[in-house]
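Minutes, project check-in
Item: structure for the 311-residue chain
Input as provided by the requester:
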Amino acid sequence: MKNTPSRKVTGDQEISSLNFEQRNMEITYSEDLQERRNEIEKKLRKKYKHDLVGRFEKAVVRYELVSENDRIAVCISGGKDSMLMAKLFQELKRHNKFPFELVFLCMDPGYLPANRSLIESNAGLLGIPIEFCSTNIFDAVSTIEKSPCYLCARMRRGYLYRFAKEHGCNKIALGHHFDDAIETILMGMLYSGQYQAMLPKLRSTNFEGMELIRPMYLIREKDICRWRDDNGLRFLQCACRFTEMLEKEKGFDCHEPSASKRLETKKLIAELSETIPQVEANLFRATENVVLNKVLGYKIHGEKHTFLEDY
């Protein structure tokens, strides 16, 4: 029997073989990623054409949120709302009648590595070319004994405006949705004794020429959750290091209603909806139907007026 001579594999050949296999794996992974992204985009255009795409475009038109040659900073936090907003902006740009530009900004307030990695992974899957802008906000507010949420939110907003302006943008887009809007109305009444709305757009008082827009204004949170779950997506929930610390050290659950006035209000609206089916729609409509000659008082640009002025 003739012996088959053994072939010696050199180190270079081993590396070449490994590189070939690695390239094949990368190609396969890239193809799988593209296939999944295509499926997500297809569902968005067809299955969610009315509840998500349609309502997004309706808000843009109704409230005149996007104008020709706008350069919009789409602000991404890593949560479901802002990630979906980014996809809806891409869809709007794909077939819009006039040109505008998008910049996808993710302001990193000091995320833990795992949280930042999740944002990067989701952005890669969804085809969102995000740009990170790093800050030390979490470190700055960590020394505050009471809840630092208010200061953190204000600092985030300021940094977003600044980064957007540095990128040549004239608008920033935030992912607040319909449920956020009606919760804000009720929170103001119950906790602050005032009636005001979260507007779909407003001009910045500190950054000249900048505007804030909320194109998710007419989209229901339940439909956002349905889109997320339908596609098997996992986004950041509460990435705040402060609440994570409380959860670990004191057994505090940041998702319990007692931990947040907004969550308490959300629960109240859900309870009211069981007996008043139109309560959510009516809370929203109320902001469009204020009868000024039937209120005791109101404020315009900080100046207070009473019904007696026109009595």
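Outcome recorded: The radius of gyration is 25 Å.
No further action items on this chain.
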